[in-house]
Amino acid sequence: MSRSRRLIAASGVCLAVASIPALGAEHAFDGIYTGKRVLTKGSDRTCPAEDNVSVTIHGETLSFTNSALRNFVIGFYPEQDGSFHQISADKGGATVNILGRVIGDGIEADITNPPCEYHWNLQKE
Predict the structure, then answer these.
(1) pTM, whole model, 2 decimals?
(2) In Å, what is the CA distance from 36 to each residue of 17, 45, 77, 86, 122?
(3) Considering the domain boundaries, does residue 46 fall inside one?
């Protein structure tokens, strides 16, 4: 085998090996996270002071359920450090603004769902 072909073959192997961790990291945050949402702002009677919340992350999708919203689905495009900021509205007019971060096996996030604002403290199941 010529020297140039060996270099090309070696480069291909290096690229293939280097891309393997990247493929696995693509869905590193996938899973089900459960915990509480705690009211941080809002005095409306529709804003519970504390509530159970469940979040499922799968690829580029985050869906959550609480006492007000069921399986509310939004896009999920985290930064490498796990931080994310997503804004979404459903057909019924409910808007949700989520600013958070996946840290280890947990999610810490601040959520604005007018007229209420909450903080999530969730752990991966």
Answers:
(1) 0.75
(2) 41, 18, 23, 19, 7
(3) yes
CATH code of the domain in which 107 resides: 2.40.128
- Strand-pairing partners, residue 52, are 36
Beta-bridged to residue 102, according to DSSP, are: 107
Domain range for 103 is 27-124
User: Could you read off the pLDDT of 55-99 as tens digits, one per residue?
Assistant: 999 999 999 999 888 998 889 999 999 999 999 877 777 788 999
Number of domains comprising the chain:
1
